[in-house]
């Protein structure tokens, strides 16, 4: 199969990864009413899905390195399709929560597999390909809630979202059965599997820096997206201003990733990571400390633009270091993102209870300063060879 065809298949898959899971948020108020849930009970579904996703990401890269990309992706798509249809007909919230844990696991399997596949298919331009892949994810994350709104207005309500998601995953997975996808490098005939253990990657300072970039990026970015609405509400800004910030951030993320895809191979991965880190540090404070609404929106937009290239370019760099275990590398950097999203927003909220949001966000700005230092070390080490 041609590189172009593999790239298109990967882009379609990652668009679905971005658009379908995010539809849960618009459906949640309807689920709360349908099952008469407390907010604590409703929130359990996010915990279940995140826990499942963490385990899926942990296993997905290694499995796709050993078994090949196609079997893992197809199995995960079909499993998600089946589980989403079961959610649509489930009479119990406890059962739905359990199914979402399994849906998260299946989704976690897909993530590193597609990242590794597109990196292998574009081995001479990994940065461009991975930034484009994650740009498509951002577009999906913007479109998903809009589609969910239309489905919620139908006579089937929230069930239509899960029936629709089920149908899409099943069609995508079944279509891949008739497509010849490449195996991983480990499965290539004549290739001898290298004795590279996942934990040994952390003995490489370059990989440690890339792990730190993904952790710091997703921790600070998720903190901004998670708390910006609450922060603006407490600061007595208009409700509509806060509601639009997440969409503005994802718009910046999408525009930035397609732009970074063009720049990555021209200016080098380490230099692009440094530019993105400096830009994130420059515009993040504007989103928090500015007063005019338009200036806040500009800060959020440009923070998204500069945040955009950090993880995909780190992923491209890591795949260049270890092309023979692309799935494992993708899993580990996805775990770095998960750890960042689990810890930094919680720390920010905990601090906000004691010292207020404006002061608590200085934690994130401090982490972005660390990110700039890591990026400088990465560029310096690259120049030293």
Polypeptide structure, described:
The protein is built from 14 helices and no strands. It is an all-alpha fold and 385 residues long. Helix 3 packs parallel to helix 5, helix 8 runs antiparallel to helix 12 and helix 13 runs antiparallel to helix 14. The radius of gyration is 20 Å and the shape is globular.
Give a short overview.
With 385 residues, this protein is an all-alpha fold. The chain contains 14 helices and no strands.
Rg on CA atoms, Å: 20 Å
Secondary-structure class: mainly alpha
Report the sheet-strand fraction: under 5%
Number of strands: 0
Query: Can you summarize the main beta sheet?
Result: none
Q: Low-confidence parts lasting 5 or more residues at pLDDT below 50?
A: 188-193
Tell me the overall shape: globular
Estimate the helix proportion, in percent: over 70%
Number of helices, where a helix is a run of at least 4 consecutive DSSP H or I residues: 14
Query: What distance separates the N and C termini?
Result: 35 Å
Could you tell me the mean pLDDT? 87
Keywords:
single chain, 385 residues, mainly alpha
Topology:
Elements: H1 3-19, H2 24-35, H3 39-67, H4 69-89, H5 93-121, H6 126-152, H7 158-176, H8 205-234, H9 239-267, H10 269-289, H11 293-307, H12 310-321, H13 326-355, H14 357-384
Helix pairs in contact: 1-5, 1-6, 2-6, 3-4, 3-5, 3-13, 4-5, 4-7, 5-6, 5-13, 6-9, 6-12, 8-9, 8-12, 8-13, 8-14, 9-11, 10-11, 10-12, 10-14, 12-13, 13-14
């Amino acid at each position: 199969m041609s590189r172009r065809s593999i790239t298109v298949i990967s882009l379609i898959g990652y668009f679905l990864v971005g658009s379908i899971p995010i539809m849960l948020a618009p459906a949640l108020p309807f689920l709360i009413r349908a099952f008469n849930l407390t907010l604590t009970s409703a929130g359990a579904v996010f915990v279940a899905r995140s826990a499942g996703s963490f385990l899926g990401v942990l296993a997905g890269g290694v499995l796709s390195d050993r078994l090949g990309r196609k079997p893992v992706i197809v199995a995960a798509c079909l499993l998600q399709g089946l589980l989403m249809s079961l959610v649509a007909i489930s009479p119990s919230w406890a059962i739905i929560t359990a199914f979402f844990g399994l849906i998260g696991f299946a989704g976690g399997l897909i993530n590193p597999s597609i990242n590794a596949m597109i990196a292998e298919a574009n081995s001479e331009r990994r940065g461009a390909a991975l930034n484009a892949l994650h740009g498509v994810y951002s577009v999906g994350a913007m479109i998903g809630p809009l589609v969910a709104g239309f489905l919620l207005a139908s006579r089937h309500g929230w069930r239509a979202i899960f029936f629709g998601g089920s149908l899409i995953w099943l069609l995508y997975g079944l279509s891949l059965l008739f497509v010849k996808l490449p195996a991983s490098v480990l499965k290539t005939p004549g290739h001898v599997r290298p004795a590279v253990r996942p934990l040994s990657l952390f003995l490489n300072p370059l990989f440690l820096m890339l792990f730190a970039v993904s952790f710091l990026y997703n921790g600070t970015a998720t903190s901004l997206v998670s708390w910006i609405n609450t922060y603006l509400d407490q600061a007595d800004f208009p409700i509509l201003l806060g509601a639009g910030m997440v969409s503005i951030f994802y718009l910046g993320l999408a525009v930035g990733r397609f732009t970074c895809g063009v720049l990555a191979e021209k200016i080098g991965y380490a230099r692009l990571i440094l530019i993105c880190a400096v830009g994130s540090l420059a515009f993040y404070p504007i989103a928090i400390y500015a007063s005019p609404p338009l200036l806040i929106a500009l800060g959020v937009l440009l923070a998204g633009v500069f945040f955009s290239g950090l993880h995909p370019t780190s992923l491209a760099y890591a795949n260049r270091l270890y092309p023979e275990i692309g799935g494992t590398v993708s899993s580990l950097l996805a775990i770095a993102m998960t750890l960042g999203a689990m810890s930094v927003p919680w720390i920010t909220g905990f601090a906000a209870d004691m010292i207020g949001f404006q002061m608590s966000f200085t934690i994130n700005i401090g982490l972005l300063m660390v990110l700039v230092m890591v990026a400088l070390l990465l560029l310096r080490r690259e120049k030293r060879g």
